[in-house]
Design brief:
The protein is mainly α and 251 residues long. It has two domains: 45 residues; 183 residues, no CATH class. Helices cover 78% and strands 0% of the residues. Helix 4 packs antiparallel against helix 5. The longest helix is centred in the middle third of the chain and has 32 residues. It starts with a helix and ends in a 16-residue tail after the last helix.
Length: 251
């Protein structure tokens, strides 16, 4: 694909802008910023990855993964505003998810410890963990606000914060995992995922592309579960004060 051909795809952005203007959605500025930022970020990361792949140095692999985890944490932390220490809690959850999933992939020699494998797969895993983190935090805060009376009643009867929040924590964890599970259910019937499509376009054998896509799908389900559970259990204490009182403001 040439730069001229790529420039024609800006027509899709123009369509979105026109629709936003027509319906007065007020998304024109966000669409323009998203277009510019994504182009700059992807072009920059393309050159960086070219250098990292050529050097093939484990230190640069780790630094790239650390950068991705840090940016994902910063983005997901916006969903947890008002919760004490949420940035570090998200960082821990995503880091554990990345270590466990990549540890299994490399440990069982499913994929080699090489930048062209580790970095792209880590990017997809971390990105999925970031989405799960945001969904978990949104739902957990919503559950605490919506059921504050039940939670306070349990606390008043002598229950611990864990006992009071557990039913709603489970609902939040479940809700954060549903998009990943539903996506996996329809893969191949409704959608052909990006990794598989990219390999096929590049000329890879479709069966081999399917195998790699299954690797990603299975790791996504594990990453969503690990991130949601770890983040949920390290975050719920922030909903309570040192005196075991619910601190989330009701709706």
């Amino acid at each position: 694909m040439t730069l001229l051909t790529l420039s024609f795809t800006l027509g899709f952005v123009v369509v979105a802008l026109l629709l936003s203007l027509w319906l007065k959605l007020g998304l024109e500025r966000d669409l323009v910023i998203a277009t510019i930022r994504s182009a700059i970020q992807l072009i920059a990361i393309g050159y960086i990855l070219k250098i990292v792949f050529k050097l093939n140095n484990p230190l640069f692999i780790v630094l790239m993964i650390a950068l991705m985890v840090g940016v994902a944490t910063q983005n997901a932390a916006r969903r947890g505003q008002g919760l004490a220490g949420v940035w570090w809690k998200i960082l821990i959850a995503i880091a554990i998810t990345e270590c466990v999933t990549q540890g299994l992939l490399v440990g069982f020699r499913i994929t080699p410890w090489a930048p062209k494998f580790v970095i792209p797969i880590s990017g997809m895993i971390v990105g999925n963990a970031m989405i799960a983190s945001g969904l978990l935090l949104n739902r957990l805060k919503s559950e605490a606000r919506g059921h504050h009376q039940e939670i306070r009643a349990i606390l008043a009867l002598g229950g611990t914060p864990k006992q009071a929040i557990m039913p709603f924590l489970k609902q939040a964890i479940r809700a954060s995992m549903i998009p990943t599970i539903d996506s996996a259910k329809t893969t191949g019937l409704v959608q052909l995922p990006g990794m598989m499509t990219g390999q096929i376009i590049a000329g890879a054998d479709p069966i081999q592309a399917v195998r790699y896509q299954l690797l990603i799908l299975f790791s996504f389900m594990a990453s969503a579960a690990i991130t949601s559970i770890v983040l949920g259990f390290v975050t719920y204490p922030s909903l309570f004060s040192q005196y075991q009182q619910l601190v989330v403001t009701p709706d």
